[in-house]
Design brief:
Layout (H helix, E strand, L loop, with lengths): L9 E5 L5 H11 L6 H6 L5 E8 L2 E11 L2 E9 L8 H15 L4 E7 L3 H9 L3 E12 L2 E11 L1
Parallel strand pairs: 4-5
Antiparallel strand pairs: 1-2, 2-3, 3-4, 5-7, 6-7
C-alpha cells in the first residue's frame, strides 16, 4: 500500500470481532502503556463503539468511543505508525464527530498526554477546548506526565 493514504479514499465502519486482531497490534504499537488484550476487546462492545479507518482494504487506524446517554468519550484513537502524519487521524476524528452529531449526542470528551502535541493540535483545530489538567496521570519512562482533559460541544 502506498504511504500516501490520503490520496486514496478512506472508508469508515464499525469494527467486527475479526478486525480486532488487526486493531490491537496498532494499539500496542502506539501506546506507551497498552491495555491488556481483554480490556481492549471489552472496549469494543456496548456501550462502546470501535470505528475503523480503512484504505485499499487495509485497516490503518481505529477509534474507540464510550457512549453514555448523550455524552461521548474518545477512549482511544490510533493510527498505525507507518500511516501517521498523513491526515488519517483528522479524517477519522471528523467522521466519528459527524456520527455523534447525527446520533444527537451533546458533548464529546477526551484526554490526551501533554506531550502529544500533534494530537492536541488536531483536537484544537476540531474545536476541542481544555477543561482541566490532570497532574501526573499517565506513566512514562522515569515518571509520570499530565493529561489534558478536553471537550467539544456537539
Amino acid at each position: 500500500m502506498s504511504k500516501n493514504v490520503t490520496a486514496i479514499p478512506l472508508s469508515f465502519e464499525l469494527a467486527s470481532r475479526e478486525s480486532l486482531a488487526v486493531c490491537y497490534p496498532i494499539h500496542c504499537a502506539v501506546q506507551v502503556v497498552p491495555w491488556s488484550e481483554g480490556t481492549f476487546t471489552d472496549c469494543t462492545t456496548s456501550p462502546y463503539e470501535c470505528w475503523l479507518a480503512e484504505g485499499n482494504g487495509q485497516i490503518v487506524g481505529y477509534v474507540i468511543l464510550l457512549i453514555v446517554l448523550d455524552e461521548v468519550t474518545i477512549m482511544d484513537i490510533a493510527i498505525a505508525p507507518e500511516f501517521q502524519g498523513q491526515g488519517i487521524g483528522k479524517q477519522l476524528l471528523r467522521h466519528v464527530l459527524s456520527h455523534c452529531r447525527n446520533q444527537k449526542h451533546r458533548v464529546c470528551f477526551l484526554e490526551v498526554r501533554e506531550s502529544n502535541q500533534a494530537a492536541i493540535h488536531v483536537y484544537t483545530k476540531a474545536g476541542f477546548t481544555l477543561l482541566e489538567r490532570r497532574k501526573n496521570y499517565y506513566p512514562v519512562a522515569g515518571g509520570r506526565e499530565d493529561a489534558l482533559m478536553m471537550s467539544l460541544m456537539l
